[in-house]
Amino acid sequence: MGSGARSDEAARILVVDDETEMRQMIADYLRDVEHYAVANAANGFEALSMLAQQPFDLILSDINMPGMRGFDLLNRVRERFPSVKRVLITAYNVEDYLDLALKHDIGNIFVKTAPFNFNELSAAIRNLLSNDIFGLGHYFEPGAEQTRFVINNARFLDRHAREITDFIGDRKRAKYLEVAVVELLTNAIFYGVRQESPERKDQWDLDCELPDDKAIVATVVRDREKYGISVCDEGGRLKKNDVLYWMNRQIRRDENGLPLGISDVHGRGLFIARRYIDRLIINVHQGKRTEIIIINYNEKAFYGYKPLYINEI
Which residue segment(s) compose the domain that 61 sits in? Predict the structure, then answer.
C-alpha cells in the first residue's frame, strides 16, 4: 500500500487529527486548492484501518491525539506501509519532540501557526511527494528574484557571509544572519567537501582552495513576503538522525541547567541557524549533495513555533 505519487492521478493524502475543524480545514485545502485526493481520519486506529483498505502516498498526522499519539501512529505506518511518506503536525514546541523524532525516524514536523501557513504546508508536501527536495525556489513565488554566490576558498568566509547579508539588506537581523551564514559556509567547505574532522580543527587548512566542480554555491531568493539563503555542497555527508541528535543535545539540559551539548563540536551551526532564523530546512542526498536553507519573513507574519524540515533521499 502507499505506492508513492503517481503521474497519472492525483496523489492520495490521509489527514489525521482529532480536532474536527482543523482536520476538515486542512483536508479541504489540500483537496480544493492543491487538487490532491484526500481522506481524513479522527484518530490513529481509524487511520490504520483506512491505510489497510486503500493506498495512500502521504499521511499528515497530528501529534497529540487520544488513544494513539501521532508518533506511535507513524511508527506503525513505517512498519506496515513503508512507502507512505510521513509528516507530523502540531501547535506545540517542536523542540520538545526531538528525542521522539529521533526514535521514530521523523524528519518533518509542520507547525500550526496563526494564521495557518498554507503555502508552507503545500511546499513541504509537494517536495516530499515528488522527491524533488532541492531548490530554494520551491518556497517562493514563481519568478522570484534569485542571485548566486560561488565560493571556492575558505580564507574569506566572514567576507563572503557579509557580502550575502549586505545584499539582502535586513539590517535589523544582520548580525544573527551573518553568524548563521558563516557557520553554514564553514560546514559546507570543511565537513561537506573536505571531509575534515571537527575534533581536529587545529589541523584545518584555513587557506584552502576548492576546485570549481566542488565550489560552494549560495543562492539568495526573495519575494514580497520573505527572503531565503541556500548553501549547497557536493558532499552529502549529513544524516537526518545525526542532525536530530545534535539539536536535541543543544536543547536538553543537565542538572546544572547547561545544554548537554555545550562542549560538542558537532551541530553548532545548525543549532544557531534554527535558533535565530525563522525557518531551517535541511535537504540531503546521501553521498552526493547537501542543501541547507534558511528563510526569514520580512514581518512577523505567522505566530507560533518553528517547524522541523529534514529531507533525506
Answer: 12-130
Instruction: Encode pLDDT of 296-309 as tens digits.
Output: 999 888 999 999 99
Helix/strand/coil for 216: strand
CB within 8 Å of 307: residues ≥ 6 apart: 94, 108, 109, 110, 111, 120, 124, 279
What pLDDT shows up at residue 8?
A: 53
> Domain containing 284 — which CATH number?
3.30.565.10
Note every long-range contact of 128-133, with CB atoms under 8 Å and residues 24 or more positions apart, other chains counting. 128/58, 128/85, 128/87, 128/311, 129/4, 129/5, 129/11, 129/57, 129/58, 129/85, 130/5, 131/313, 133/283, 133/291, 133/311, 133/313
How many CA atoms lie within 13 Å of 138's alpha carbon, on the beta-carbon side? 22
- Among 130, 154, 176, the domain boundary falls at 130
152 torsion bin: left (phi>0), alpha (psi -120 to 50), beta (else) = alpha
In this structure, are residues 36 and 12 in contact, taking their beta carbons and an 8 Å threshold?
A: yes
Query: Could you say which of 68, 96, 130 is where a domain stops?
Result: 130
Q: What is the pTM of this model?
A: 0.93
Bin 218: left if φ > 0, else alpha if -120 < ψ < 50, else beta: beta
Q: How far is CA 235 from CA 34, 50, 291, in A?
A: 34, 40, 10
Determine the Cα–Cα distance for residues 138 and 291; give it in Å rounded to an integer. 13
Cβ atoms of residues 88 and 69 within 8 Å: no
Closest residue by Cα to residue 303 from 116, 44, 69: 116
State how many domains the chain has.
2
> Are both 67 and 151 inside the same structural domain?
no
